[in-house]
Amino acid sequence: MKKINILTSILVATALLTACEDDRDSNPTIQEPTTFVLNTPANATYNVYDLNQSKNIELTCTQPDYGYPAVVTYTVQADLTDKWTDETETADASYLTLPSISTSAKVDANTQELNKAIVKLAGWTSENDYDGEPMSVFVRLYAHIGDKGYPIHSNSIELKVIPYYMDISDAVPATYYLLGDFIGEVPWGNPTMAAGTAYFPMSLVKGYAYDANTGKGEFTYTGYIPADKGFKVVATPGAWDDQWGNADSEGFTNLVNDKNSQNIKVNAAGWYTLHLNTLENKLTMKATTFETQPTEYDAVTLIYGSESVNMTKVTMEHSHVWYADITIAASCKAKFTSGDKTWGGEVFPFGSFVDGATISCKPGDYTVLFNELDECYYFKAK
Asked: Where does the record place the SusE outer membrane protein domain (predicted)?
């Protein structure tokens, strides 16, 4: 019996060792590739791609060597200068990444996406900015496996293209504004009221996709509201046809979009959150609580390019909204800072906080509004 048990143990151990060997064989070691080649299309040297008359440009490459037949994700990147400089705190990247992805070594570069990248990189704002002549655009592939693991760029190639002007701007989110008895130092309804001194915008909902044509969608505001102080939510400060208030009497139990509505008002002072959906034409308001009280900053500075300005806090109890009037002379990067914390974003002239990002600003005169509690900013053109 002992001999049988010993023999059985040996067989089990052998099977386990074999299984371990099989596991090692099926889990190869990943090696980090150092290069991979994007091929120049056979007819690229003598051909000009009319981006308005074609759907895709076929690109092929040799797959990066990860040490095994990995599933590789590819995206196309475009640069007008072939410099391939990354974004810094003071300048945008010299290239853009096209949205479409491929898991094949044959990648179809979408011509509409490529054209949009060219228009943005060239800074065209009208049809008059492009003379219609063929021009060069440089493309390369960005490859990775899994969740952006082991990323690598290919070499770049030059393509001759005829692009076309297209409007690449989306509608600015059509926010509504809060104004009332407890906001600012200028009475609401006064002809001199302005952003910051009498009203401020509701905040964007982080991660929400607004309607590109109308700017409609969801907006929010969380703040301290004192008791028995009336206020309204309006589309255009100074105009009262499109306004939110309470039906029949002052309060917040029956909020309606009606020019004859009464003031919104609370009986108990405290923190409240308003949520507005302009697609569904619905406004809600409810009391909110915090585990710890929000930090109230003594100062917030807006840094834009080589300039900076100390922002002014909107006058109201427990205010977290700031504003400043500035002139931006040339395109630059911007961010907000309290000294202890810094906020930036990826979109201009409006946006939500994105960790590590800086805001790419365009020249102009602006009233800048920043809500550090909702972490939202607006560069409101004057």
From this structure: 25-127
Contact 114, 356 (CB under 8 A): no
Percent of the chain scoring above 70 in pLDDT: 93
Distance CA 9, CA 1 (A): 12
User: Given this structure, which CATH class describes domain 35-160?
Assistant: mainly beta
Q: Which two tokens stand for residue 273?
A: 């959150």
Q: Please write down the long-range contacts of 190-196, taking CB distance under 8 Å and 24 or more positions apart.
A: 191/238, 193/237, 193/238, 194/367, 195/237, 195/323, 195/367, 195/369, 195/380, 196/312, 196/314, 196/323, 196/324, 196/367, 196/369
What order of strands is seen across the sheet that includes strand 350-352? 312-313, 321-328, 364-371, 376-381, 350-352
Beta bridge partners of 33: none
Q: What is the pLDDT of residues 62-74, one digit of tens each?
A: 999 998 888 899 9
For 202-222, b/e burial (b = at least 16 CB within 10 A) is bbbbeeeebeeeeebbbbbbb
Domain made up of 175-285: CATH architecture: Sandwich (2.60)
Indicate where the chain has its CATH 2.60.40.3620 domain(s).
175-285, 298-379
Q: Dump pLDDT digits (tens) for 230-256.
A: 999 999 998 888 999 999 899 999 999
Longest dimension (CA), the chain: 103
CA 11 to chain centre: 60
Q: Please state which of the four CATH numbers 2.60.40.3620, 3.40.190.10, 3.90.1720.10, 2.40.37.10 is assigned to the domain occupying 298-379.
A: 2.60.40.3620
CA distance linking residue 131 with residue 162, whole number of Å: 10
DSSP 37-73: -BPPPTTTTT-EEETTS-SEEEEEBPPP--SS---EE
Task: Please report the pLDDT score of residue 203 as a whole number.
Answer: 97
Pairwise CA distance, residues 302 & 22, whole Å: 59
Closest CA relative to residue 254, chosen from 262, 226, 48: 262
pTM metric for this prediction = 0.68
Number of other residues whose CB lies within 10 A of the CB of residue 127: 10
Single-letter code of the amino acid located at 62: T
